[in-house]
Amino acid sequence: MKMNANIINNYSRLKLSLFFLPLFSLIAIVLFLYSKGALCADKYIEIQKDCFFYINSHLGQYPHLEYNLTQFGDALVSLSFLSLFVVYAPKIWEALLSTLLVSLVLCCPFKSMFAVPRPAAIFDNNTFYIVGRAVCGHNSCPSGHTITIFAILTVLMFGFMPKETKSKILWIFSIMNLGYFLAFTRVAVGAHYPLDIIIGSVIGYLSGLLGIFITRKYKILAWISVKKYYPILILLFVFGCVLLVNRIINDNLIIFYFAFISLAFSLYKIITLYVKK
């Protein structure tokens, strides 16, 4: 499979120096918050209160669109759209699964450590847009949806990286813009503050890099490309379809219909290939 070979080749070229940018960014964010005296939850919220209301008031005017787009931060939805890569580019899925495990490990401790109250837990719920269910927990920072979005986009970005310099710049710019376009829907629906998104994007990018390097060094998930193990993927895809049907019944969002169609088609494709083995 040429596509899979190209992805493996792209991943093999990555260097450890790529970790400098996300680590430097995290340090810069911490120093910025320290300079503002915002390393505590109350001040962290205060310094971005106006920015939160501004973004929310503008983007929140399109609730149906924003609520659909924000679902891309749900791994079930995103992976459903990428499910066909199991057949044509299994290396992508190896990296994706490693990446999502890393992002889970990084996300949960940070949320517990910072314990930042969500906007709906602090502000009068009648003063800003809340789309969907109001989230009132104390786990706002970082944004888990944003981590997922950027972790997945990082895997795709490096996997399909063009060779020419100009094309690379355009590709990276497009991916990053897409990431923030999707991630800031979390502010639009009233679930997160802007800095939750920024921090989440850096952690997501870091998770993507770690997932790629783990996949490159260890072959734990190499079974994904072996046809005799397709029944495992078939069961997972069937389970995913059931979960998406449940989402459709409960929320009836168009994004869930498209995700279901994509996953169902991939399920059909993989069953067909397995039967023809």
UniProtKB/TrEMBL annotation:
Keyword Transmembrane listed? The answer is yes
**Residues covered by the Phosphatidic acid phosphatase type 2/haloperoxidase domain:** 95-212
Q: Which residues cross the membrane?
A: 69-88, 95-116, 143-162, 169-191, 197-218, 230-249, 255-275
Keyword field: Membrane, Transmembrane, Transmembrane helix
Pfam families reported for this sequence:
PAP2
Q: Which InterPro entries match?
A: PAP2/HPO, PAP2/HPO_sf
Q: What is this protein called?
A: Phosphatase PAP2 family protein
